[in-house]
Every structure is written in structure tokens, then in C-alpha cells.
UniProtKB/TrEMBL annotation:
<protein>
    <recommendedName>
        <fullName>Cytochrome bc1 complex cytochrome b subunit</fullName>
        <ecNumber>7.1.1.8</ecNumber>
    </recommendedName>
</protein>
<dbReference type="GO" id="GO:0046872">
    <property type="term" value="F:metal ion binding"/>
</dbReference>
<feature type="compositionally biased region" description="Basic and acidic residues">
    <location>
        <begin position="538"/>
        <end position="564"/>
    </location>
</feature>
<keyword id="KW-0472">Membrane</keyword>
<keyword id="KW-0479">Metal-binding</keyword>
<keyword id="KW-0812">Transmembrane</keyword>
<dbReference type="GO" id="GO:0008121">
    <property type="term" value="F:quinol-cytochrome-c reductase activity"/>
</dbReference>
<keyword id="KW-0813">Transport</keyword>
<keyword id="KW-0408">Iron</keyword>
<dbReference type="GO" id="GO:0005886">
    <property type="term" value="C:plasma membrane"/>
</dbReference>
<feature type="domain" description="Cytochrome b/b6 N-terminal region profile">
    <location>
        <begin position="19"/>
        <end position="245"/>
    </location>
</feature>
<feature type="transmembrane region" description="Helical">
    <location>
        <begin position="347"/>
        <end position="368"/>
    </location>
</feature>
<keyword id="KW-1133">Transmembrane helix</keyword>
<feature type="transmembrane region" description="Helical">
    <location>
        <begin position="118"/>
        <end position="136"/>
    </location>
</feature>
<keyword id="KW-1003">Cell membrane</keyword>
<feature type="transmembrane region" description="Helical">
    <location>
        <begin position="213"/>
        <end position="238"/>
    </location>
</feature>
<feature type="region of interest" description="Disordered">
    <location>
        <begin position="535"/>
        <end position="564"/>
    </location>
</feature>
């Protein structure tokens, strides 16, 4: 119930209405609800990867808040007096002791530790898969180039959040990981040792690194992730949501469901599904059993240590890098006026170059593809990966490049479990490091082109029905069923760019940059399968189809068929 006062203002009669109206008149909440609540989102399973990333981050915040109440990030020395008997009386840092207390003495502590760790793995995985989905479907194109960059920054921040949290317990496994990072930092010429001393608070392992990582892990990195998520969602609202091609779907509309109430209800239910799965995995499967590793001690080096999957590729690159090549060392001593500095390229190159290649191409790709295609149009419709064979092949090559380094981080375990030579494993992985992406590129592009040819064949001739018909002259053929309109639309409605040769400028000259662009255009689009044109489709339909032949033959008497 409501009324209008003499001044013409809206005055609700109920108490709840008055409170709501009070808030609305001061923050314009109804306008925001009207704007965002009517935002339409398409409904497709591939869009859920971004939702999983958001929900797993919420779980990370909730579980991390619980752990913050009990974790002490001090590297002061103490003797363990907790419930875990095998480590009683062992000297360790306060950080490691508090991690053991959370695991064995805090009610629900071990469960929350595992929820936090599993959701961290899921967060990085879902961000990675979401980025792959965006790449393979072309959702990074105009006007979403900046949102793609935001996603790349989010991926780097997710790796940073995972690594800083992974190092906090100060156990033997995380200490070995920090030792690798210390070696990489010290390989930086001139300033590397100073950066290491600042980070660790002295010579490794120092006395301050855990506290500093703790500040990064609970304050700076999460704040930046929240900022990037807010920017990302803001851009999703500003731009039309991408959608798959289909009848009635264009670059100027979105076919789907509004946020309220349909999508909000579905999203809420999906959040609890993700939460339930993470909780189930955390309750059943042990991860990062720090009590088995013991406190960190710089003197021993344990075999078989494996970092989490999302950071293992850097460790793998270090393992693949040789110290010498063709009799030449990768470590040089360079004299300076203040003394001799060592340049350790055998550490610096594998630690920085692969990551630079991956993230450099990732951030630059929207502009690279737009430059090659000379395509400045708005793209709100997605590509099927097979319809962009070169882009898909480059994505597959990048995944193989990453996976080879990831596998190299487990080279010792591969050798021991399969009882093969560690040197042979390293040699094969070095071969795959260089040639695996090339092989993956070639195979993926040929598969994509083959699938395009198959789609073209299906559009023109229909799908196999499994029914065999004998024609009047004795030939046996299989009846092909024509496609329905929606399936045919999916197979024929896609962009197929052609080669754009190098174009002269206003002075009639072709610059070197334009020549390179023309060469890349040939590389991208020389092998292409053009979509079926309306003329080709009409010509194919004007021919007598096997179904029509079968119908005509059924109208005849069986005797006449037998005579033929």
C-alpha cells in the first residue's frame, strides 16, 4: 500500500516500504536493479567457467578468513608441543607450528585448510579454462580487447595468490619452492642479490619472507583480484554478452534470460553446487599434507617434490635448460668497476623467456589478429573453434608448450615410476618443448579443416540415416536425411576470412610492415573451407534427393519393383 502526499512525493504506508523508499531515494537502487536486473545473458554451458572462477574465489575468501584467525606468520623459532606426536619437540618456525595446530588442534581446521587449497586450484583452473574458451571462440575481439587484458591480469594475479599462499606454512616443500624463486631472483644481473636480501630479510631463508608473503597473500593480491573482477564484470555489463550463432541471433541483440529472476536463481543454485563439490573433495581427498614434509631446513634437498600444477611449468622450464650447449656455458662472469657479476642465463632464460612468450602473446593477440585480418567490426557472435582453424591451432600449440613444461616438473617421478632413464626423459621433453607445439599446430589445423569439410558435406547432402534403398536400375544407395533449419544454420553461418594481400599506401608503396601482414594473412587463411553459399544450397536442394527417390518407389507396386 502506498499514497502520494500533497507535494506529489511517493510515501509507502508499510514500515518496510518506507525503509526501502528511504534507501532508494538516496542511492537510486531501483534504477540499478532496473538496469542490471533486466540485463540478458545467453544460456550455454561453456559460459559457466567464468562463474566457477567467481564462485571459487568467494569460497577462497570465506575459508581464508577462517584460517587468518589462527595462522601466525612468524619465522621465530619454537619447539612443537601440539597433538601430532611424530613432530613433538622438533624445532620449527611459529608459522609451521600454527599450520600444524590448524590441522590437528582447531576444530574443522584441517577441513578448512583443504577447502582453501582445493578452491585455489579450482580458481586458477577455471580462470585458465575460461580464458581458453574466450580465445578459441574469438570472444576477445572488438569491443572486448581490454576485457581480455583484464582477464590476463587476473590469471597472473591468480598465480601470484596461489604461490604466496602455498609458501606460507614454511614446510619443507614450500621452502624448496622459495629456494627456486631465490635462485631466479639472484640470477637477475646487478640488482638480484639486493632484491633477494630485501624479500627474505637477509641471506636465504632470512627471517621476514613469510610475514611479507602473508601481507601479499591476504591484502594486496586479493584486493587487486577483487578490483579486476569488478572491472571485468563492469565491462561485461557495458558490452553486449557474446552468444553462439543461431536463427534470430545477430551482433545487435542478445537471446537469453534476464538476470532477475531467472539467471539469479540459476546462478545461486550453481554456486552451492560448486561449494558442495569443493567441500566433498576437501573432506575425502588429502592435499598438501604438511605434517609429512616436516619444517623447512635449507640443508636437505628432498626428491620427488612437486609444486602445484599452475606454478610447476616454471620449475619444469628450469629442469629442461642445460648448463652447457655445444661446449659453451650459459653462466658468464662479467667484470664491472665494482667487481665481478655472474650472469646465469641457465636460470634467467628458462625462468623469464617462456613466461614472457606466453603472456606477451596472450596480451597482444587481439591486436595481432585484428591487424592480420584488417577487421575493425564489432563481434558479438562467437566462432566455433573449427571455423577458425589457424587460431585454434595456435591455441593448441600454446597448450602443448605449457603442458610440456608442466610435465618436465615431474621428470624425476616419470623416470622412477616408469623405470626409465632420467636423461632420456629430459631429452624427449626437450624435443617436445621445441617440436611439440609445431606438431600440435599442424595436427589441430588439419583436424579443424577436415571438420569444416565434413560440415559442408552434411549441409549439401544431409546426414546418413542407415536405410538402404535399391534403385530401379539395381543400384543400392543409403538414404540421407536433410538437416533441420537450426542445425543447418549452425553449420553455414560463420565468417571465413580470405587472404588479404599486402596493400599499397597513399603513395603507392608497400611498407615492410604491410608485407609482413600480407604474409601472415596467407599463413592464416590460405587453407580455408568456404561456408556453403545460398546458391550452392539451393542447387543441392533442386536435385532429386534419395528420400524423394524412396518415396516415389514406395508408391509403386511391389511387383514392378521386383521386375526391375
Amino acid at each position: 500500500m502506498s499514497a502520494t502526499s500533497a507535494t506529489g512525493t511517493y510515501e509507502p504506508k508499510t514500515k518496510l516500504g518506507r525503509i526501502t523508499n528511504f534507501v532508494d531515494t538516496r542511492v537510486s537502487g531501483s534504477m540499478m536493479v532496473k538496469e542490471f536486473g533486466r540485463k540478458v545473458f545467453p544460456d550455454h554451458w561453456s559460459f559457466m567457467f567464468g562463474e566457477v572462477a567467481l564462485y571459487s574465489f568467494v569460497i577462497l575468501l570465506l575459508s581464508g578468513t577462517f584460517l587468518t584467525f589462527f595462522f601466525d606468520p612468524s619465522m621465530a623459532e619454537t619447539h612443537y608441543e601440539g597433538s601430532y606426536v611424530p613432530l613433538k619437540g622438533v624445532e620449527m618456525s611459529v608459522a609451521y607450528a600454527s599450520s600444524l595446530d590448524i590441522s590437528f588442534d582447531i576444530r574443522g581446521g584441517l577441513f578448512m585448510r583443504q577447502v582453501h587449497h582445493w578452491s585455489a586450484l579450482l580458481f586458477v583452473a577455471s580462470v585458465s579454462v575460461h580464458m581458453l574458451r574466450v580465445f578459441f571462440t574469438g570472444a576477445f575481439r572488438k569491443p572486448r580487447e581490454l576485457n581480455w587484458v583484464v582477464g590476463g591480469v587476473l590469471l597472473i594475479l591468480a598465480l601470484a595468490a596461489g604461490f604466496t599462499g602455498y609458501s606460507l606454512p614454511d614446510d619443507l616443500l614450500s621452502g624448496n619452492g622459495l629456494r627456486i624463486i631465490d635462485g631466479v631472483i639472484k640470477a637477475v644481473p646487478v640488482v638480484g642479490t639486493y632484491i633477494s636480501f630485501f624479500l627474505f630479510g637477509g641471506e636465504f631463508p632470512g627471517t621476514a619472507v613469510i610475514g611479507r608473503l602473508y601481507v601479499l597473500h591476504i591484502l594486496l593480491v586479493p584486493a587487486l583480484i577483487l578490483l579486476m573482477i569488478a572491472i571485468h564484470l563492469f565491462m561485461v555489463v557495458i558490452h553486449k554478452h557474446t552468444q553462439w550463432r543461431g536463427p534470430g541471433r545477430t551482433n545487435t541483440n542478445v537471446v537469453g534470460f534476464p538476470v532477475g529472476p531467472v539467471y539469479a536463481a540459476k546462478a545461486g543454485g550453481f554456486f552451492f553446487i560448486v561449494f558442495g563439490i569443493v567441500a566433498f573433495i576437501s573432506a575425502v581427498f588429502t592435499i598438501n599434507p604438511i605434517w609429512n614434509y616436516g619444517p623447512y631446513d635449507p640443508s636437505p634437498v628432498s626428491a620427488g617434490t612437486q609444486p602445484d600444477w599452475y606454478i610447476g611449468w616454471v620449475d619444469g622450464a628450469l629442469r629442461l635448460m642445460p648448463g652447457w650447449l655445444f661446449g659453451m656455458p650459459f653462466e658468464w662472469n662479467i667484470p664491472f668497476p665494482w667487481g665481478v657479476n655472474t650472469l646465469s642465463l641457465n636460470v634467467l632464460l628458462p625462468a623469464l623467456v617462456p613466461a614472457g612468450i606466453v603472456f606477451g602473446l596472450l596480451f597482444a593477440w587481439p591486436w595481432i589478429e585484428a591487424w592480420v585480418t584488417k577487421d575493425k567490426r564489432i563481434h558479438n557472435l562467437l566462432d566455433r573453434p573449427r571455423n577458425a582453424p589457424t587460431r585454434t591451432a595456435i591455441g593448441v600449440a600454446g597448450v602443448i608448450f605449457y603442458c610440456v613444461m608442466w610435465a618436465a616438473a615431474s621428470s624425476d617421478l616419470i623416470a622412477t615410476h616408469f623405470m626409465v632413464s632420467l636423461n632420456d626423459v629430459t631429452y624427449w621433453l626437450r624435443f617436445l618443448f621445441f617440436f611439440g607445439p609445431v606438431i600440435g599446430f599442424i595436427v589441430a589445423r588439419r583436424i579443424a579443416l577436415a571438420l569444416q569439410r565434413k560440415d559442408r558435406e552434411i549441409v549439401l547432402h544431409g546426414v546418413e540415416s542407415g536405410r538402404i534403398v535399391r534403385l530401379p536400375h539395381g543400384e543400392y544407395i543409403e538414404v540421407h536425411e536433410p538437416l533441420d533449419e537450426y542445425k543447418r544454420y549452425k553449420l553455414v553461418a560463420f565468417d571465413s576470412p580470405e587472404v588479404t594481400p599486402a596493400q599499397p599506401d597513399a603513395k603507392g608503396k608497400i611498407s615492410r610492415s604491410e608485407k609482413r601482414r600480407g604474409a601472415l594473412s596467407r599463413f592464416f587463411f590460405e587453407d580455408r573451407v568456404a561456408p556453403v553459399t545460398p546458391a550452392e544450397l539451393e542447387a543441392a536442394h533442386h536435385h532429386e534427393s534419395p528420400t524423394e527417390v524412396e518415396a516415389r518407389e514406395e508408391d509403386r507396386a511391389p511387383e514392378s519393383i521386383e521386375k526391375h
